[in-house]
Write a structure and sequence with these properties.
144 residues, mainly alpha, Four Helix Bundle (Hemerythrin (Met), subunit A)
């Protein structure tokens, strides 16, 4: 059974991370590249944003009776199959899983420009993720 309160708590946390990421989008690429704390903060926030969304995906997919996603990328596809998010949004967000993996596992080879360019995409995509997930939960509540 999908724990609606758990999903809402995760979405609230995701929203907090997005709020913290938002001012970083106002920086220039040069500012970003020359500020270690700015780079590290951005990287960590993107990692947390993706992990939080994947937690929601996995919970909803499994509790809806489907097999668990094999990895972060497929969690977005499975979330779409379950009705949590649209297929278009899943396609848009699944690349963020690859970004998260690079940040976590290949941190020595991070492309600062690529991370910087991903900030507005993360902000837009995950704000939409929250909206669609909230609609999904509301629909569950009205249908029993």
């Amino acid at each position: 059974m999908i724990d609606k309160d758990l999903v809402r708590r995760k979405l609230a946390r995701l929203s907090q991370y997005l709020t913290r990421l938002s001012p970083l989008a106002q920086k220039t690429l040069n500012e970003y590249k020359n500020d270690d704390y700015l780079r590290f903060s951005t990287e960590r926030l993107i990692e947390l944003i993706v992990e939080c969304a994947v937690d929601v995906n996995n919970h909803v997919v499994v509790e809806a009776g489907n097999r668990p996603p094999e990895d972060y990328t497929t969690s977005f596809s499975r979330a779409a199959e379950t009705g949590l998010i649209s297929r278009d949004l899943a396609d848009k967000l699944k690349g963020s899983a690859g970004m998260r993996n690079v940040l976590v596992h290949e941190y020595m080879d991070i492309d600062d420009e690529m991370v910087f360019r991903s900030i507005p995409l993360a902000l837009d995509g995950f704000k939409e993720f929250i909206k669609q997930a909230e609609r999904f939960i509301e629909k569950l509540e009205t249908t029993g």
